[in-house]
Amino acid sequence: MHRPFVDLLDRNLDHAAAFTDRFDDVQDAQHPPVVTVCCSDSRVLQDHIWGNDTPGQLFTCGNIGNRVVDRTAAGDVVSGDVLYPIVHTGTETVVVVGHTGCGAVTAAYDDLTDGIDEPPGIERCLDLLEPQLEAGVDALPDGLDRAAAIDRLVEYNVDRQVDFLVESDEVPAEVEVVGVVYDFQDVYSGQRGEVHVINVDGERDPDALRATHPDIESRIERLWTY
């Protein structure tokens, strides 16, 4: 047995001891107020970035590229991972969480610009992600280095995922959809690990967002307004 997994089991005992009485209210059902859609990246600790240690508070989804889109024979639909808590548990806030230096966005950028070879499972994920990014790659400002281009496409991807949810008939109009970027690479003005709000219900202009949401105006920041 590889030692890292044995270490995880040991730390799970600490978790179990700390959480033993925290599951009483969620034994029979869950009603999380928020569903988060995060990128599957070991650097993005999906619950910990919010300081969450309460079972039933967050419904967390993860995939490469923080995608909300799935493809069926009938066309593109909202992924069931995201739709389930909205339809069945009464969740009224969706948060799409991109992050700086995203490997999925980087791979999609490379594939769209030069072409890359990936295993079929990864290729399918890129096939779902790339249509959201293609116009963004074409619209990138001139003179950006690679890292700066990727981080702007991270924002662009979050915007497209938010748009898909806002425009979907499957998501009730009263559900609020928020797009954010988690920064651990000193790209935004805050400290490492801060979440920056870039989009609310399809509105992405920072000034308009600050005017509408003054309670979070210090947390609203974008790299790219297009």
From TrEMBL:
Its EC number is 4.2.1.1. It comes from the Archaea. Its cofactor is Zn(2+). Binds 1 zinc ion per subunit. It catalyses: hydrogencarbonate + H(+) = CO2 + H2O. SMART domains: Pro_CA (SM00947). The keyword Transferase does not apply. Signal peptide: none annotated. Keywords: Lyase, Metal-binding, Zinc. GO terms for molecular function: carbonate dehydratase activity; metal ion binding. Zn(2+) binds at residues 39, 99, 102. InterPro entries: Carbonic_anhydrase, Carbonic_anhydrase_sf. Belongs to the beta-class carbonic anhydrase family. This is carbonic anhydrase.
